[in-house]
Amino acid sequence: MRHPIKPLDRYVFAEFWKIFVVTALGFPLITIVIDLTDHLDSYLARDLSPDKIALSYLYWIPQSMFMVLPAAVLFATVFSVSAFTRHSEITAAKASGTSFFRFIAPILVGAMLATGLDLVISELMPAANRAHNELIEADQMRAQNTRYNFAFAGDLGRVYKMSQLNRTAGVALQLQIERHGMGPDYPTYVVSTDRAQWKGGHWDLGSGVMHLVTDSGPGFTIGFRKARDNQFREQPNDMMTRAHLPDEMRYEELSRFITAMERSGADVNEWKVERALKIAIPVTCFIIALFGAPLATSNQRGGAAYGIAISLATTVTFLMAVQVTKAIGGAGIMPPDIAAWVPNATFAALGLLLLARVRT
Prior knowledge:
Blueprint: H1 7-45, H2 50-86, H3 89-95, H4 100-103, H5 105-137, E1 146-153, E2 158-166, E3 171-179, E4 188-199, E5 202-205, E6 208-213, E7 220-224, E8 227-228, H6 251-263, H7 269-296, H8 303-330, H9 336-339, H10 342-357
Antiparallel strand pairs: 1-2, 2-3, 3-4, 4-5, 4-6, 5-8, 6-7
């Protein structure tokens, strides 16, 4: 039996992968240098030590790589295919009976590997972003033991308001828990208590009242001398800082947050777009290879300048399309889960059209 992987496949894959690795590592480093140049004065003004600044940028690498990998695939595809075209290697392969589609198969395999890598990065990125933001923002609340008069957005669409929180003692004073809901199965309620104690991995509430508000009937109030709220899972340390942003939550965490906010009647279109992009952006790695490979064969004498122009123009166009569709999906003009995939669908259609016009 003939071996499915030929020396030509290994050669094409190696040429693609060399450019991909250099671009995937080089772009984040350039981004870090630019960002550091812009913000170095503010970091020094806050007395951030050099080791903290360096560590924060180390945590920032997953986020920068998440957006850069599709561009890296595009650059690797365009430059490798352009080089094969200029040196007549594609022509020689066709003369030996290898079609253009079979010739670029190793590049598409590399693009699929990049898609898988970007999906892994999308799950590692939230934890790294949280660590980066804590170091760069130098959140002073974490260095304090007491926080006064604040509100904290927790899980399941709940909001905690308190006059004082002592992290060391694990005590919250004048605590109010609010959850907005809709319908009889998920009503709005407000729980108020003078004191809550973090003990044994849960919060014990002192005497207080619970106000239940329903859409279908009159509300009512329940008093209690003490209670335990099993849904109050936030620890004192968690509430000494701000709530997590979308890029600080993994796909499942963001899904749970969206479900809770939907049940409370909140507008979650922007969050849904962000969630869909966690998958749509990695898939772009494969789609952009379908688009870039036939495009790179259109000019045999363009050289490096032609490849750079194509890659940069395509990258800028794609990023602009993502921002536009995010705004459209967030505004509810288009279903958010569909809006996030519009750039991919557009580039996939253009890529298939270009592939159909390539002489195989």
